[in-house]
Structure formats: C-alpha cells, structure tokens
Design goal:
Blueprint: E1 2-7, E2 13-20, H1 26-32, H2 35-41, E3 47-48, H3 54-59, E4 64-65, H4 77-105, H5 108-111, H6 120-137
Parallel strand pairs: 3-4
Antiparallel strand pairs: 1-2
C-alpha cells in the first residue's frame, strides 16, 4: 500500500490520508481523493511533485510542478546539461518533502507491517499525526 502525503517547504506534514493499493497510479489517486480539484480552487498555489504525477503537471501547468522530462538520446550536450541542472534543482527543492516521508517510515510499526491490511490506514494516520505534532512543536 502507498500513502499520499502533503508537506510544506519545511518538511512538516500538512495532510496525509489516501492509503491505496500500490498498483494504483499516483496521479489517479490524487484525482480520486480530490487533490486535483484543489488546484482549481487555489490558483496561486504551486506544488512540487515527483515523476508519478506527470499527468497532474500536464493538466495544471504552473501549479503542479514535476521534474523535467529526460532529453532524447543523442540530444546536444548543452541540453543534457540543462536537464541535469534543472532536475537537480527540482530534487533539491523537494528534499524537505522526502524528509517528511522518511519521518513517517522511520517508525518501527511501519517498517515491516505484519498485521491485517485493513488496520494499516488507521495506524498510518495515527503515526502521521504524531510526526506532525512533533514537527510543529520542534
């Protein structure tokens, strides 16, 4: 199962829910959970996303920002260098979000889930709330 987590630029968890089967695509999950609709209600918000959300990036240009697409094989060296620089910049901006994911996954209860699958969403939300509370007071 995979979770959808929204974090701010400081790495604090703002929202988590939407545990879904690992086979469901990230952009599909965002659409099903109503996250994609939020872009229409908040046109000034920009969100840094990973490669799994390329469809949202296409639908909400300027708001849903994903890493740049890889250059085609045989592209000019200047274009490849620019791609590497842009991709590195995007991942540097997103590193705090990745740290928010890591804070959730460091909890021993989630490192190896051996209980019933239907209990995982409740446990994950409880851990996310604890992490969020800890980060907001730190």
């Amino acid at each position: 199962m995979k979770a959808t987590v929204i974090a701010d630029w400081r790495g604090r968890t703002l929202w988590t829910d939407a545990l879904r089967p690992g086979s469901m695509h990230d952009a599909t999950s965002a659409r099903n959970e109503g996250i994609a609709v939020c872009f229409q209600h908040f046109p000034d918000v920009e969100v840094l996303l990973d490669d799994g959300y390329l469809g949202l990036s296409r639908d909400h240009r300027g708001q849903a920002i994903t890493p740049p697409r890889r250059s085609r094989p045989g592209a000019l060296s200047g274009r490849v260098e620019r791609w590497e620089r842009d991709r590195h910049g995007h991942s540097s901006d997103r590193i705090t979000v990745e740290h928010a994911f890591a804070d959730h996954n460091r909890w021993k209860q989630l490192t190896r889930w051996t209980h019933r699958r239907d209990r995982l969403p409740h446990t994950y939300r409880a851990i996310a709330n604890l992490v969020s509370d800890r980060n907001s007071t730190a």
